[in-house]
Target: GreA/GreB family elongation factor
Amino acid sequence: MTRRKLERCAMSREAFCQLTAGDLNILMSMLDETGHTESFTILLREKLNYASVFFREDIPENIVTLDRQVIYTVNGVRTGPHLLVRNAASRPANSAISVRTMRGLALLGLAVGERTEILGEDGWPETLAVERIVFQPGSEACLKQTSTEPVQLIDHAPQVVNFRPQPRKVAIPYDDDPGPSAA
Model:
């Protein structure tokens, strides 16, 4: 099988993913950048063409999104946990994976249990499978909110008095036309 056919075969399997609106914006900005390999650009376009988009609060907890820590396998070998980030330059190499890599882009939007095939950075096919989401910053904030006591709303505004203008007599200028009843 030629490399070209392999690219088409591997990329066509990436027909569905779930993204947050923020993830989608980042991928769209990456589309304008130059310097990506052909297989990376194909995968990026597939993600953008077939993605279901959610607000960050509404995306299911089992979906790999940016800033979530994920454990996954590469050709059956467990890898991670890695934090999926926009740019891994400021983080230790073994703790994060950038969405600007083939693996990072392929993982973005997949659900736990899903797998995909890509061409690795070395040009050989790789099968990635998502095992588990370890850390979800958005869901922890939700848990903190729900675990505390119910929030009581306090109205700090003074009582507002209903204001209604007093009715005025409508002044109609004198008109000597009797109207249609005179006919």
Q: What stands out?
A: The chain has a mean pLDDT of 78. The first strand starts at residue 17 and ends at 20. DSSP finds five helices and seven strands in the chain.
